[in-house]
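Translate sequence into structure tokens.
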Amino acid sequence: MSDAIKLVAEPRTQFGKGAARKIRRAHKVPAVMYGHGTAPVHITLPGHDTMLALKNTNALLTIVLEGDEQLALAKDVQRDPIKPVIEHIDLVVVTKGEKVTVDVPVHVEGEAGPETVVTTDHQSLQLEVEATNIPESVTVNVEGAEAGTQFLAGAVELPAGAVLVTDPEALVVNVTAQVTAEALEAELAEAEAEAGIEREESDEDAAESAEAAEGESAEAEGEGEKASDEA
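Result follows.
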């Protein structure tokens, strides 16, 4: 991801909740840019373009402010919990050649062996990379992997120049045996029994129990009649 996305910013001089709401009503986003020992710079970004730019994980941004360009990464993005709106962004200034630590998504590809379940325990890995060369993802290939196979962070192939920050022993992807419905039911019943939970008999189970009882009763009557005849 070496190509920076350009966003034309405007200087911001009004602050507070009222000013922020006014900015958002104009379909813009309040933001602050800081780093490298410089004083924080408060800016306003175009709402739609910023929303599109931040769909890219770890997007490298070129912030154009009054003719000057500055590379930056989004450190914190505050979003509205209901509406698809960005409320505020913290941007960190970066320079070409600088190393940054970022969380890079894990992408799982391939088909594991039959009757297996693939679980991703780490959705991302923390890597130290060049700010102008942040990978979009790292890939774990599970093709043909059998139950019991585990992929640890230290074994994941990283892009050239990237350094793993996550614990190398961290479990990233786990391949386990598929649990049958019968085994799952037995496990659930055992857990409920240990917890002292008594299951309510379902209609189907009740019908089966009734049929079994009727069968036992008929069998007992038959044996009783046979014993009487023999006597």
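Note: The helical segments are 17-25, 47-53, 181-194, 203-230.
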